[in-house]
Design a protein that fits this description.
There is one protein chain. By secondary structure, this protein is mainly α. It has one domain: ATP:guanido phosphotransferase, N-terminal domain (Transferase Creatine Kinase, Chain A, domain 1, Orthogonal Bundle), CATH 1.10.135.10. 36% of the residues lie in helices and 0% in strands. The protein contains 5 helices and no strands. It has helices spanning 21-28, 31-36, 47-56, 77-80, 82-93. Helix 1 (21-28) packs across helix 5 (82-93). Residues 4-94 form the Phosphagen kinase N-terminal domain. InterPro entries: ATP-guanido_PTrfase (IPR000749), ATP-guanido_PTrfase_N (IPR022413), ATP-guanido_PTrfase_N_sf (IPR036802). Belongs to the ATP:guanido phosphotransferase family.
Length: 110
């Protein structure tokens, strides 16, 4: 039930009431949906499969920590669907695509 996983409908579904990073990205730039809705990776992972969790989940578990709303079906998904993955990952983790996660090896600061 819910959003199909084999193909995206022609029109972006109503995302009002959703609380995740994917829906923020798609509402800010609906052209992303139109540009990627028929795309898939070389292994057959569709854009519909990538965004299904975020479209199906109307509300996040917490207003402080919102889910990313996307899943990568294979490694190529990150490149093929970078227009949604990069801002979702940045929103969720607070890191830009070129950012480095801080490394704290001193146990007194952990």
């Amino acid at each position: 039930p819910g959003f199909p996983c084999d193909r995206c409908p022609e029109v972006l579904p109503n995302l009002s009431g959703h609380a995740n990073h994917l829906t923020k990205v798609l509402l800010a730039d609906p052209a992303i949906y139109q540009d990627l809705r028929t795309a898939s990776t070389s292994l057959g992972v569709s854009f519909a499969q990538v965004i299904k969790p975020g479209v199906d989940a109307r509300v996040g578990a917490s207003k402080e920590v919102q889910p990313a709303g996307v899943v990568a079906g294979d490694a190529e998904s990150y490149r093929a669907f970078a227009r949604v993955f990069e801002p979702c990952i940045q929103g969720y983790h607070g890191l830009s695509p070129t950012g480095m996660h801080p490394c704290a090896l001193d146990p007194t600061v952990v």
